Amino acid sequence: MHHLAPLARFGRLIATDLRDVTSDPAALDSAGFWAVAADFEGGLTCARFGDVRTEPVPPPTAGRWRGPAAHHWTSSLNRAEYIAGVRRIREHIAAGEVYQANLCRVLSAPLPDPAAADVDALTSLLAMGNPAPYAGTIRLPEHGVEIATASPELYLRRQGDTVESGPIKGTGRTVDDLLEKDHAENVMIVDLVRNDLGRVCATGTVTVPQLCAVESHPGLVHLVSTVRGELGPKEGWRDLLHATFPPGSVTGAPKSSALTIIDALETAPRGPYCGGIGWVDADRGTGELAVGIRTFWIDRTPHDSDHSDGSRDSRTGAVLRFGTGAGITWGSDPEREWAETELKAARLLAIASSPDERDE
C-alpha cells in the first residue's frame, strides 16, 4: 500500500504533502493544518499537511475500490449476544449504576484485494450514496490509519475560544418512529456534554442553543442538540480533548460508569469508531472533529496468514471494519435496539460491499 500517498479529505477540503505525524494533542495549538484521528480507546494520530486546498470529491472510479462480498460481514456480537447485553445494561440501570449506556458492535469483512482498497475511493462512493455533513478520508497507510467516514455528528467545532458540540441521540426511519425515550436520552446526553464542556469553559458560558431538533439523513432521522461554550484563557486542544473524550453520545451517563459497562460487554475494540475524526487549523484557531460513527476503517495488521518464515501473502491481512450501536436506557426494548443497529449499518454496508464479489 506504499503507493497510496498520505491524504486527508473533509468535505471539499483536501490536504496533501504530509509533513509531520505526532500523538501529542498540544501540536493542535502550534501551527499548520492537521488531520486528527482519535481512537475510542485513546490512541491519537495528528498529521500535519503542507498543501490544503478545496476541490469537489471526485466521482467513483472503477478499480479503486473492491469491497468485500456482502455476505462476508461478521459481527463482534451476534443478535443473541447483543440482546443479552441490552438486558444486562437494563439491570445496571435498575441497580442505579448508570442512566444509559451505548452498546456497540464491530462488523468485519476480509477485503478480497487489499491493493484495490483505497479508503478515499470508498469516500467517493459514500459521498454519492450516503452524503453526510462530516464526510471524510484520512489515509496514512504507513501509520496504520485508513479511515472513510460518513459521520452525521459533530463532536467538537472550535472557532477561536468558542467551542460547540452537536450530540445525536434518538434514531428512527421517520419522525413518527421517535419515542419519548429518544427525547429523554438526548436530554441526558446534553447534560453530560454541558458538564464535560463546563470543565474547560469559562463559568456561565455553556449554553444549549438547540435542543432535540429533528435532522434528516439518508434513510433515517436523528434528534440533534447543540451545546456551546467559551474556553477558559489557558485551555487548549489537549484540555478540551481530555475533558470531553470519548464523546458523551457514544458512551452514556454517567460517563465513567458507562465506560466500565462497555468494557465488560463489548468484545472488540471500537478503534476510530466512536472516536474523533476531523481537522484542526492551528494557524486560524479553528477545527472540526466529527464523532466517528458511520465510519469504515481498514485494518492491515497481519492475521492468520503469516508464514513461519515471517513472509506474508500479499492478498491477506486486510480487513474492512465498521461499527454500529445504540443507546440503551431503562425504556429500551432489546429487539428494537438490535434493529436500530441493523438500520444504521444496512445502507452503508451495501455501499461498501461489492455485490458481485464471488467467493475467493
- Which structural class do you get from the secondary structure elements? alpha+beta
| Span of the ends, CA to CA | 21 Å
CATH superfamily assignment? Anthranilate synthase
Global morphology: globular
Q: What name does the CATH topology carry?
A: Anthranilate synthase
Kindly describe this structure.
This protein has 360 residues and is α+β, with helices and mostly antiparallel strands. The protein has a single domain (7-352), classed as Anthranilate synthase. 23% of the residues lie in helices and 35% in strands. It is built from 6 helices and 18 strands. Residues 304-315 have low confidence and may be disordered.
Outline:
The protein is an alpha+beta fold and 360 residues long.
Task: Quickly list its features.
360 residues; alpha+beta; Anthranilate synthase; 18-stranded antiparallel β-sheet; 6 helices; globular
